[in-house]
Amino acid sequence: MKFAIVGAGAIGAFLGAKLSLSGEDVYLIARGPHLKEMQANGVRVRSPEGDFEAHPTATDDYESIGPVDFVFLTVKAHSLTGIAPNLAPLLGLDTAVVSAQNGIPWWYFMSHGGPFDGTSIESVDPGGVIAKAIDPSRIIGCVVYPSTVIVQPGVIEHIEGNRFSIGELDGSSTERCKRLAAALIGAGLRAPIRSHIRHDMWIKLLGNVVFNPMSALTGATLVEMATHPETSAIARAVMGEADAVAEALGVRLRLTIGQRMDGARKVGAHKTSMLQDLEAGRPMELDSVVGVVIELGEKLGLPMPHTKTLYSCARLLDQVRNK
Q1: What residues form DSSP beta bridges with 144?
Q2: Of 180, 195, 210, which residue sits at a domain end?
C-alpha cells in the first residue's frame, strides 16, 4: 500500500522507516536539514530492539506524491492549520487520513453523538480550517505510544514503545482499519483496533495535561514531578479536573489518578515532549493538550482553577521566550 507520512519528525520518520522496511510504498514529507539528510542517507534508527535504517522517499512536494491509501498526520497539532490545505494532492477517492496528534483532536465531536455532536473546537482548529480541508469520512483516529527523539537530522532514537492504537470515529469495524492494522503489524508494530478511540486518548491525556506544562515550567522529569510533595499534589488536582471533563463527556476512565501517578514514577527520569520542544526552541503543544481541556470544561460549566493556572503560566513562558 501507499503511505504518506506528513510531518516526518521523530515519530513520523520512525513509523515511515518501519513501514518501508516491511515493503510498503512510503513517502516522508518533511523540511529543512532533517529532510535533506533523509534524502541523502535515509532514516537511521537507534533502538533497544536493534538499530536499523531505511530509505523511503523523502520530499516536501505534495504534488509529486499523488493520491495514497493512507495519510498519516504526525505533525504537531498546532501545525495542522497551516498544513491541512496542502493535503489535497494526496487525497484520492478512498484515501484515509490517520490523525496521530497528542491531546484532543479537531474531529473529537465528529460522529460523536449526544448534545455536542458536530461541535467545532476553536482551541485546536481556529476558524475550522482543518475541518474544511479534511472530510470527516476520511478520518481514522490514532493514539501514539512510542517515545522517539531526533538526535540529529536523519537520525532517530527510539526510546521505547511500539503501539499505534487506531479506531473509526463512530466505533465501527471497517476493512480500511483492518488493512491499516495489518500493515502496521507487518512492520513490527502493535496496532489494536479500538471501538472507543476517544477513551484511549483521554487515558494518555490524563498524564499529558499536567506533566507536559509542568515539566516546561520546572525542567523536571516525570519521576521528579510525581514524587515531589507539592507538585504531586498539583498534578493530582489537575488530573481530577481533566477526569471530570472526560466523565461529563461520557468517558469513564478505567485508570485511577493514583495509578497514573504510579505510572509516571515508574517511567523515571524521562523528559516530556513539551520540555524537549522547549529546550529545542520549538513551539509547545499547549492548546491541543491543555487549552482544549479548559475549553471543554468551560462548555460543560466545570471549574478548572488548577488547570487554568498551569496553562496560564506555560503560555506566558511561551510568549516571553518568543519575544
Answers
A1: 164
A2: 195
